[in-house]
Design a protein that fits this description.
The protein has 97 residues and is mostly helical. It is 71% helix and 0% strand. The protein has 5 helices and no strands. The longest helix is centred in the first third of the chain and has 19 residues. It is flat. The model has no long low-confidence stretch (mean pLDDT 78).
Length: 97
């Protein structure tokens, strides 16, 4: 397909590898994949899910600070950072009461 689009074979190979890597990297964030995998290897389902609720709020804030700091190098736009982190941070805040 890459050759039909005017690219060389190496670009086609890179396109296939990039797609496979993107699927592999985002697969761990899918709770269904993780739940099925933990069931297969006979582990308890989502054992670390309650960890943020057991940590002191100051440690949670420090951890979130360092996550945002490291994300700052990858995503320079503040609105994009918010779009990436709010789906994760909002449930964590709800768990903290």
């Amino acid at each position: 397909m890459a050759i039909a689009l005017g690219y060389d074979a190496m670009t086609g190979y890179a396109m296939v590898c990039l797609g496979a890597m993107a699927g592999f990297l985002t697969g761990i964030t899918n709770p269904y994949n993780v739940g099925v995998a933990q069931g297969i290897v006979e582990l308890p389902l989502f054992p670390g899910m309650g960890l943020p609720g057991r940590l002191p709020p100051a440690l949670n804030a420090i951890g979130l600070f360092f996550v945002q700091l490291s994300l700052n190098f990858l995503v320079p736009s503040g609105s994009r950072q918010a779009a990436l982190t709010m789906p994760i941070v909002t449930p964590l805040g709800d768990m903290m009461d």
